[in-house]
Amino acid sequence: MSIANIRKSTEDKMKRSIESLKTDLQKVRTGRAHTGILDHIQVEYYGQPVPISQVANLQLADARTITVQPWEKNMMAAVEKAIRESDLGLNPASMGETIRVPMPALTEERRRELTKFIKAEGEQTKVAIRNLRRDANEAFKKLVKDKEISEDDERRAQDDVQKLTDKAVAEVDQILQTKEAEIMTV
C-alpha cells in the first residue's frame, strides 16, 4: 500500500463519517418541518417493512406541517400508524387522501436536551475521525518499518493526514453550530 492509497482511503472514510453525522442530525426534530425526519420510519407493506418514502409522497405543506400522501388508499391506516408509533412524538391526522403531520413546538428544556444530544453525536464523529488519523499514521509507520518509504516521507504524510483531520473536525464543528442554531431558533 502506498502513501497516496492510505491518504485517499483515510479521506474517503472521513467524508463518510461526516455524511453519517449529517444523516443522523436530519433525524433530530427541530421546530421546523423537514421531510427527512420521516425517512427512517418503516411501514408494513404486504408483509414487508419498507421506508415510508417508498409507499407515499412526502411534501411540506408549510414551515410546520408535513403532508404524506400514500400511493394506495389502503395504506392510509398503516402509514398513519407507523408515524404515530415512531419515536418522534408526532401526531398525524387523516384528511381525505392525505395525512397531515404537524410539528409540535419545542419547549426550552427539550431544545437544551437536543443540543446536548447533537454535541454528543458530533463528539463521536470527531473521535471516529481521530481514530482514522491514528490508523493512517500506524500504516505509515509500518511502511517505514518495512523500508518502503523514508522517515521524511512518513513525516510529510502524517502532516498531510493531520491537515485532513483538522479540516474534517472543522467541518463537523460547522455542521453542529448550524444545527444548534436551527434548534434554538424559536
TrEMBL record:
Keyword Protein biosynthesis attached: yes
This chain belongs to the protein called Ribosome-recycling factor
Domain Ribosome recycling factor: from-to ranges? 21-184
Source species, domain of life: Bacteria
The cross-references to InterPro entries, in alphabetical order and at most eight, read: Ribosome_recyc_fac, Ribosome_recyc_fac_dom, RRF_sf
Provide the alphabetized UniProt keywords: Cytoplasm, Protein biosynthesis
Per the UniProt record, the lineage of the source organism begins with: Bacteria, Pseudomonadati, Pseudomonadota, Betaproteobacteria, Burkholderiales
**Primary role:** Responsible for the release of ribosomes from messenger RNA at the termination of protein biosynthesis. May increase the efficiency of translation by recycling ribosomes from one round of translation to another.
* PANTHER family cross-referenced by the UniProt entry: MITOCHONDRIAL RIBOSOME RECYCLING FACTOR PSEUDO 1 (PTHR20982:SF3), RIBOSOME RECYCLING FACTOR (PTHR20982)
